[in-house]
Hints:
Structural class: alpha+beta
Subunit structure: Part of the 50S ribosomal subunit.
Number of helices: 3
Helix content: 25-40%
Family: Belongs to the universal ribosomal protein uL22 family.
Order of helices and strands: EHHHEE
Keywords: Ribonucleoprotein, Ribosomal protein, RNA-binding, rRNA-binding
Shape: flat
Organism: Fulvimarina pelagi HTCC2506
Number of strands: 3
Low-confidence stretches: none
CATH architecture: Alpha-Beta Complex
CATH class: Alpha Beta
Mean pLDDT: 94
Number of domains: 1
Amino acid sequence: MGKAKAERRLKDNEAKAVARTIRVSPQKLNLVAAMIRGKKVDRALADLTFSRKRISETVKKTLESAIANAENNHDLDVDSLFVAEAYVGKSITMKRFHARGRGRASRVEKPFSHLTIVVREVEELEEAA
């Protein structure tokens, strides 16, 4: 019998992509996510391509996945898409120890993050003549 299909959480003119457990701190990832928030997708892809941040390549792949989801799964027009939401979540933190002088040790934390990108199709406003 199985479960009933879950309702779609996004609107009909939206698509999203999620990248989980990215090896970067949420604070650093949020700097790159803020760079593309609210921009048209072609402009956001150009900004990510020429960004000097290491993590911008992963953000670009996630954005391209959201665009592909919009085009293939939801039949949205790629030319009228913009980045509606780009938010970062905290994931696990690996704890490691680093040897220090005099037989001591200090803790090294290696954080991971989640990234969610939602793209939305812009509705063109009909101009009255």
